[in-house]
Amino acid sequence: MYEYFDGVVTLITPGYIVLEAGGIGYKIYSPVPYAYHEGDKARVWVEQVVRDTGITLYGFRSQQDKGLFMKLNQVSGIGPKSALAIMAAQDNGALASAIENGEVKYLTRFPGIGKKTASQIVLDLKGKMGAYVGENLFNEYEDQPKAAEAVTPELHDALLALAALGYTQKELDRITPKLAKLTGLSADDYTRKGLALLLKKA
């Protein structure tokens, strides 16, 4: 029904944003809420999902990301929450390559994705991900100098966002010391780095 909303971001939480458009505040679930900033004008590409429990809006920063969400959400065994958790890594290229190459093990690193569901993703989407191959994870802070460990408000928000995606406290405790050594990052940057660590091969 809706393609996108142009409005002002009035609230950011670990799982969703509120976008005011036309005098109405829309609650929009996002894979990367902290990529937005309160008070900023934004165009959010939205997908409306209707279920027995209600109507929910999911929002994305680009039309291509919205398309990826729709592809994932059509896979048997994948719901909107799992699709958001997969997309939160913001590494569409690696995801597309894993699907095209049948790398089931890579897909099982995402919360809520077991071997059976990962295999279903490959079965349903292999051969359909060409538009996303080659997109890279934003990694500007890979060589950020280390500093004294401290959980800043930005890191705290990022950890809440990761928990909202389905990662366990044990998993978050494992990466927190590494994230705390990075300085000058926004909540969105911490979330990206955290996801990269969580998905990193052992």
TrEMBL record:
The family this protein is said to belong to: Belongs to the RuvA family.
Function: The RuvA-RuvB-RuvC complex processes Holliday junction (HJ) DNA during genetic recombination and DNA repair, while the RuvA-RuvB complex plays an important role in the rescue of blocked DNA replication forks via replication fork reversal (RFR). RuvA specifically binds to HJ cruciform DNA, conferring on it an open structure. The RuvB hexamer acts as an ATP-dependent pump, pulling dsDNA into and through the RuvAB complex. HJ branch migration allows RuvC to scan DNA until it finds its consensus sequence, where it cleaves and resolves the cruciform DNA.
Domain spans labelled Helix-hairpin-helix DNA-binding motif class: 70-89, 105-124
Domain remark in the UniProt entry: Has three domains with a flexible linker between the domains II and III and assumes an 'L' shape. Domain III is highly mobile and contacts RuvB.
SMART domains xrefs: HhH1 (SM00278)
UniProt keyword annotations, A-Z: Cytoplasm, DNA damage, DNA recombination, DNA repair, DNA-binding, Hydrolase
Gene Ontology biological process terms, A to Z: DNA recombination; DNA repair
Name the UniProt record assigns to this protein: Holliday junction branch migration complex subunit RuvA
Matches recorded under InterPro entries: DNA_helicase_Holl-junc_RuvA_I, Hlx-hairpin-Hlx_DNA-bd_motif, NA-bd_OB-fold, RuvA, RuvA_2-like, RuvA_C, RuvA_C_sf
Subunit-structure text: Homotetramer. Forms an RuvA(8)-RuvB(12)-Holliday junction (HJ) complex. HJ DNA is sandwiched between 2 RuvA tetramers; dsDNA enters through RuvA and exits via RuvB. An RuvB hexamer assembles on each DNA strand where it exits the tetramer. Each RuvB hexamer is contacted by two RuvA subunits (via domain III) on 2 adjacent RuvB subunits; this complex drives branch migration. In the full resolvosome a probable DNA-RuvA(4)-RuvB(12)-RuvC(2) complex forms which resolves the HJ.
Species name: Lactobacillus porci
A molecular function (GO) term: ATP binding
Classification via NCBIfam families: ruvA
Region (Domain III): 150-202
Annotated localization: Cytoplasm
Annotated gene: ruvA
KW Disulfide bond (keyword) present: no
Record bears the keyword Acyltransferase: no
GO CC annotation terms, alphabetical: cytoplasm; Holliday junction helicase complex; Holliday junction resolvase complex
One Pfam family per UniProt: RuvA_N
